[in-house]
Write a structure and sequence with these properties.
The complex is a heterodimer of chains A (112) and B (110). With 112 residues, chain A is an all-beta fold. Chain A contains no helices and eleven strands. The radius of gyration of chain A is 13 Å and the shape is globular. Chain A starts with a strand and ends with a strand. Chain B is an all-beta fold and 110 residues long. Classes of the chains: A mainly beta (112), B mainly beta (110).
């Protein structure tokens, strides 16, 4: 079955460490997105990519980095520069920007 | 750029009643309006969408209506059931991405 897979589901990080969240899709979608969701809050866009080897900053890109070396993969690195990284991270993909997004099941990151 | 406002932020209904969530958008050129349902601890799931060339779209108990003149669109859920309890997000396009509303937490009481 086609879908979008995020791993791991839960992640614990010590302060000062970088951590990379995985997002893989086999839907042959062109565009991929990363969102951050805090408890009881909406979706805030971190980074997005419309094509391989190209990506754009979203509303809250500071302290995060991404790469898009393959169409299927869009990993997100939460760096030590991100002051409050504890959150629920969601990855999404779409065939084109005006099509409905398919979301992954999310990664819950906790800084300990 | 596009701005999307969503109301109400919380909505409680009795099982079997109807629920309506409204969103307004600012860019009159917007032409695609999806709705997502997010259950606790999961990613949002697309439940219905509408394009600007139609005024209403139905899928069983859910429907979406679009008023292009007033620049608002609404999600209607009829005969609500406890499993409809979730957070619902509307969205509208802005250049090359979707802009999401702030979400509505729907609680359906048995």
């Amino acid at each position: 079955d086609g879908g979008i897979t995020q791993s791991p589901k839960y992640l614990f990080r010590k302060e000062g460490q970088n951590v990379t969240l995985s997002c893989e899709q086999n839907l042959n979608h062109d565009a991929m997105y990363w969102y951050r969701q805090d408890p009881g809050q909406g979706l805030r866009l971190i980074y997005y990519s419309q094509i391989v080897n190209d990506f754009q900053k979203g509303d809250i890109a500071e302290g995060y980095s991404v790469s898009r070396e393959k169409k299927e993969s869009f990993p997100l690195t939460v760096t030590s520069a991100q002051k409050n990284p504890t959150a629920f991270y969601l990855c999404a993909s779409s065939l084109q920007e005006y099509y409905g997004y398919t979301f992954g099941s999310g990664t819950r990151l906790t800084v300990v | 750029g596009e701005n999307v406002e969503q109301h109400p932020s919380t909505l409680s209904v009795q099982e079997g009643d109807s629920a309506v969530i409204k969103c307004t958008y600012s860019d009159s050129a917007s032409n695609y309006f999806p709705w997502y349902k997010q259950e606790l601890g999961k990613g949002p799931q697309l439940i219905i969408d509408i394009r600007s060339n139609v005024g209403e779209k139905k899928d069983q108990r859910i429907a979406v209506t679009l008023n292009k003149t007033a620049k608002h669109f609404s999600l209607h859920i009829t005969e609500t059931q406890p499993e409809d309890s979730a957070v619902y997000f509307c969205a509208a396009p802005n250049t090359d991405k979707l802009i999401f509303g702030t979400g509505t937490r729907l609680q359906v009481f048995p």
